[in-house]
Specification:
By secondary structure, this protein is mainly alpha-helical. Helix content is 64%, strand content 0%.
């Protein structure tokens, strides 16, 4: 059996677009969480006079 070099897809699932949407949603949620944590930390630094 020879490997198929014409198929450049990395994701060989049945629903790659749906999987990509799920991955994007997780990344977006993680980004929002990081921004919230940064904002909280930054606000605490302002209150301390730094």
């Amino acid at each position: 059996m020879e490997p198929c070099h014409n198929n450049l897809r990395v994701d060989a699932t049945e629903t790659p677009v749906e999987n990509l949407r799920g991955t994007y949603e997780l990344a977006r949620e993680g980004f929002e969480t990081a921004v919230e944590r940064y904002a909280d930390t930054y606000a605490e630094g302002d209150e301390a006079g730094t």
